[in-house]
Amino acid sequence: MITEGMRRQFHRDGFLIIPNALEMGDVEILRREADCLINYLISENINIMTDYGGIIGITITIRECADQVPEAPDSVLHILFEKVPAMVNNFLPEESEDYPTCLFNEQYIVKTPDSASISSFAWHQDSQYMDTSAKETFPVVSCWIALDNVNLKNGTLLVEPFPRPKDAKSGGYVELPAQFQERETYVQYHKSVASHYEIPPADKTAAILMAQNRLPLQPPSPPSAATNTAAGSLSKDPKEWVCESQVPVLVEVPAGSIVFLSGWVRHCSMGNSSSKFRRAFMPQYSAGKVVTATGGMVSLAVPCSEYDERERERVDSRIRMQAEGLDFGDDVDMED
Ligand SMILES: [Fe+2]
């Protein structure tokens, strides 16, 4: 159950952690797929860390080893196109016919055992990997799903909440809406508030220490009747905003928890110094099909609402094949 307070918290901080968001059955499905991909790469003498940087992009690998993925693809698709979108829609502008919620990208992020020296990620914002025009037009939310219990030792996330803008006159924190209806306002606010991040220290040790000693994030207090928009009490020029830096948050959560991350929130991760794999699955969703300034499609751009249609086609084709006495074991095509 995602409340209005949680939605406002997402825009205030640029991220939101929902512990145990997925049932263990779904976690097992994703784990099996991750393991299958890991085993396939190992069998091909590919070093997941040094060759792939720990990131297994589904579009590349799933085709290569589709016949080796043991999981019925339908169940993964159900998680990917129904369960997670039902949650992430709370953090995107309201869907419309022109701008449906789309799967933008998906990847497993794997840290191999005892790989601390090569498996950490530096501070970054996910939007920095996008085309400039696209990232300033389309809200994108990353859904980082822990497939193992994650902690400091096995390489979890460290997230720096958005700096908090204050009202120039009253000095009070600016109130935010539960949802930005327009993509432009959404991106403008997230980008502007993120421009107030101070340069992070290259050494994460101090940030980790601060995170370990901070109090848990609290949801924002209920909005007053007077204001219900972010822009209402902020200067038009974001450079004039007075913002308060926030202490980073260490994500230590059980498997099945999801961290919803705005494309503009700054985060990094630690290396894995444990003796086991640390697995995460990270689909990303966009408000509309992401295109560049010249109209070129970026990444996957698959509307989640088309899942039902694809599902029907798959079932129909299976029924046909069964009726014709054909083996449908090869009917594993993520692209149809
Ligand atoms: Fe990231």
TrEMBL record:
InterPro entries: Phytyl_CoA_dOase-like. Its cofactor is Fe cation. Pfam families: PhyH (PF05721). Belongs to the PhyH family. This is Phytanoyl-CoA dioxygenase. It comes from Linnemannia gamsii. The lineage of its organism: Eukaryota, Fungi, Fungi incertae sedis, Mucoromycota, Mortierellomycotina.
